[in-house]
Design goal:
mainly alpha; 66% helix
Length: 239
């Protein structure tokens, strides 16, 4: 069931985008490492400069999970049907543990979004989907309510998939916070490129009615790592 928002997407929501993308926005992301904790434990993420270092790990995540999240967020911001997009998100998330995490984060983000930008469309989503929707879908819906452009919703989703692991690496490996910030700064052009690609794909998907047009990249080791991480009795991050 579609609930059109009274606030159509526009390019006027730049300040709102800063609020939504701020790491202090109370949506629960600080408790999640974006797969970094599992990767550190398995030796797939080290503190070196190579492909296994923070920059390489974040780049790989950006072009897989980040691309998928950006496409879903853009589609939701463009007015895509939430339930259908949630099904598409499920199909692109092989790990049951990550599906659970995505919906938990979606519920938290929806609560924060409704408080920040009251909107009947968001209220309807909360009623229609009490179990929650995948976080990138909710991000796009909240962006739409806030008047944030679909491409910027995609940027926020893509940025979040790398900022989480970069921040977690500071705590997990003692990475210099300045180095973590430098990783994100150097990835910024790629974040823009991924967001543009994802938004174009989302427009095609909505125009054709074919969710297969949405990005469907995947990092199998991250999905497997998430399942093992969920079984760990002691962990610093929830995922």
């Amino acid at each position: 069931m579609t609930h059109p928002s009274p606030h159509p997407p526009s390019t006027a929501g730049v300040a709102a985008l800063l609020v939504l993308a701020d790491g202090r926005f109370p949506a629960g992301g600080h408790a999640h490492s974006g797969g970094a904790e599992s990767a550190v434990r398995d030796g797939r993420l080290t503190d070196g400069p190579g492909p296994d270092g923070p920059a390489g790990f974040c780049r790989g995540r950006l072009h897989t999970a980040g691309l998928v999240a950006a496409g879903l967020a853009a589609a939701a911001a463009l007015g895509g049907e939430p339930a259908g997009l949630d099904v598409a998100a499920d199909a692109r998330t092989p790990s049951p543990a990550l599906r659970t995490v995505a919906r938990r984060l979606g519920r938290q983000l929806l609560r924060a979004g409704r408080a920040a930008w009251p909107d009947p469309a968001l209220d309807a989503v909360a009623v229609d989907h009490p179990r929650g929707l995948h976080q990138p879908v909710v991000l796009g819906l909240v962006a739409r309510a806030a008047g944030i452009a679909p491409a910027d919703a995609a940027r926020a989703a893509a940025h979040e998939t790398v900022s989480g692991p970069a921040g977690a690496a500071v705590r997990l490996m003692g990475l210099d916070p300045l180095a973590a910030t430098a990783v994100l700064a150097r990835l910024a052009p790629e974040v823009d490129a991924v967001a543009t690609r994802a938004t174009e794909a989302a427009r095609r998907a909505l125009a054709s009615g074919d969710p297969d047009e949405l990005p469907a990249a995947c990092g199998p080791l991250s999905e497997i790592g998430a399942e093992f991480h969920a079984l760990q009795p002691a962990r610093l991050f929830a995922s």
